[in-house]
Design a protein that fits this description.
It is a single chain. This protein has 376 residues and is an alpha/beta fold. It has helices spanning 4-9, 17-22, 40-51, 95-105, 119-124, 126-151, 184-203, 225-237, 258-270, 287-298, 326-332, 340-363, and strands at residues 31-35, 55-60, 85-89, 109-112, 156-162, 206-212, 215-216, 244-246, 252-253, 256-257, 276-279, 285-286, 306-308. It is globular and about 60 Å long. The structure holds NADP nicotinamide-adenine-dinucleotide phosphate (NAP) and ligand G4F. The site of NADP nicotinamide-adenine-dinucleotide phosphate has 27 residues, from helix 3, helix 6 and strand 5.
């Protein structure tokens, strides 16, 4: 059951400033602020931090439809207003609001996960992507700097960097590999990466960059290729859809599981000093290999239903990403625990179940509207 009205009660819209603080717990062991909390990684990171005793504050955007689906399960008791998750309206485009949230929440750790994170869409909306991904990160970093310098207490900042920053550089990519981004998204992430390093060096603040390779899960957005594939295969298997249209099947990616990667984010901020880390499995597969494996798990002959569609090609493609995360393994003691096969299998099983639910509703006479990706 969805708790739409319950979750709305937790969002501090309309609360006077003092009530935001009054509604929080007495000082918890650690307090985290997450931008992008409603996204794939935001939801896994929230779960991880809560399991470690954190009080978690998330920044969410005001949207005309609910964007809190990935967080609904954390609201098991809609009648309590005691956390451990608090949501606040905000946007990386709105610097004054970010400063206000730092003052009110006084976080120990900040995770900047907010982004227009779709590479293909960044070609259509390059300026907007730069505003959110690059300048948005700068707005948050500047709010963090002023908060950290005035408040003290040595708060820590995590910047969500991406393997897209390596772009055309040949694999395997590590912290010494030259950056060569191939999309407005990659360029914007690289600007954010350097803003973070500059603030670390200029002000001596604890600011770290993760350079994360692709990570997936059943909570992955449905316009990224892995989830687009598993969602479609589930529906094709149950006769709800005929075709799956894809772009470049030859691109290679280093795909891990989001749960492993948010654990790395946390370890990056728990390290003794601020630094930058590549996080990756070290194995890559082509989109075609992902498709073949997913189709095998779903029991679908993909050759009969997959068609190439040039709308999904990118003006400039990143052909091959495969990360060398030996520094993170050596220095942080991080390593992935979920295999590529398990990532694919868990996504297929999840999406077969979604398709079964859709089929049941259809058979019961309900009208089901499946949202289809628009060239992404
Ligand atoms: P995601 O699912 O697309 O989530 C992005 C989050 O950012 C959502 O919560 C979104 O809110 C929020 N957001 C977008 N624009 C915003 C704005 N203007 N102000 C405030 N919030 C905004 O991304 P993800 O896969 O969880 O990735 C998390 C971060 O890691 C992103 O920065 C991404 O670029 C980066 N990254 C991801 C991967 C990967 O493979 N997943 C790899 C490397 C780096 P709505 O829910 O309202 O849209
Ligand atoms: O799933 P994708 O859209 O992910 P992409 O471009 O690698 O970006 C993701 O990973 C980055 C880390 O490297 C993140 F920073 C970023 O935020 C995002 O999470 O595409 C993967 C590959 C590409 O080569 C693309 O051309 O799949 C290819 N592809 C083929 N057909 C497709 C499709 N991608 C999408 N989205 N849709 C297709 O139909």
């Amino acid at each position: 059951m969805r708790h739409e009205h319950a979750i709305e009660r937790y969002i501090d819209e309309g609360l006077p400033p003092h009530a935001v603080q009054a509604s929080m717990n007495p000082r918890p062991p650690r307090r985290a602020l997450i931008s992008g909390v409603t996204g794939q990684d935001g939801s896994y990171l929230t779960e991880l931090l809560i399991s470690k005793g954190y009080e978690v504050h998330g920044i969410i955007r005001r949207t005309s439809t609910f964007n809190t689906d990935r967080l609904e399960h954390i609201y098991s008791d809609p009648h309590e207003f005691a956390g451990p998750l608090f949501l606040h309206y905000g946007d990386l485009a709105n610097a004054s609001r970010l400063r206000y949230l730092f003052e009110q929440i006084q976080p120990d750790e900040i995770y900047n996960l907010a982004a227009q994170s779709h590479v293909r869409v960044s070609f259509d909306q390059a300026e907007y992507t730069a505003d959110v991904v690059a300048t948005g990160a700068l707005r948050l970093l500047e709010a963090f700097r002023d908060y950290a310098l005035v408040h003290g207490g040595h708060p820590r900042f995590y910047q969500a960097g991406s393997s897209e920053m390596f772009g055309a550089s040949r694999p395997p990519q590590n912290e010494h590999t030259p950056f060569y981004p191939r999309s407005p998204y990659g360029v914007s992430k690289l600007a954010a990466h350097w803003y973070a390093i500059n603030q670390r060096e200029a002000y001596g603040l604890f600011i770290s960059n993760g350079i994360l390779f692709n990570h997936e899960s059943p909570r992955r957005g449905e316009t990224f290729v892995t989830r687009k594939i598993t969602r479609a295969l589930g529906r094709i298997k149950l006769g709800l859809q005929d075709k799956l249209y894809l772009g470049n099947l030859d691109a290679r990616r280093d795909w891990g599981h989001a749960a492993d990667y948010v654990r790395a984010m946390w370890m990056v901020l728990r390290h003794d000093s601020a630094d930058d880390f590549v996080i990756a499995t070290g194995c890559s597969h082509s989109v075609r290999e992902f498709l073949e494996l997913a189709a095998a798990y779903a029991g679908v002959d993909w050759r009969t239903c997959v068609e190439e569609d040039p709308r999904y090609f990118r003006p400039t493609e990143v052909d091959a990403l495969e990360g060398d995360s030996s520094k993170a393994r050596r220095v942080l003691g991080w390593q992935p625990e979920i295999s590529f096969e398990n990532v694919v299998q868990s996504m297929v099983e999840h999406d077969l179940e979604l398709a079964r639910q859709e089929q049941t509703l259809l058979r019961a006479g309900h009208k089901v509207v499946h949202r289809r990706a628009m060239y992404a």
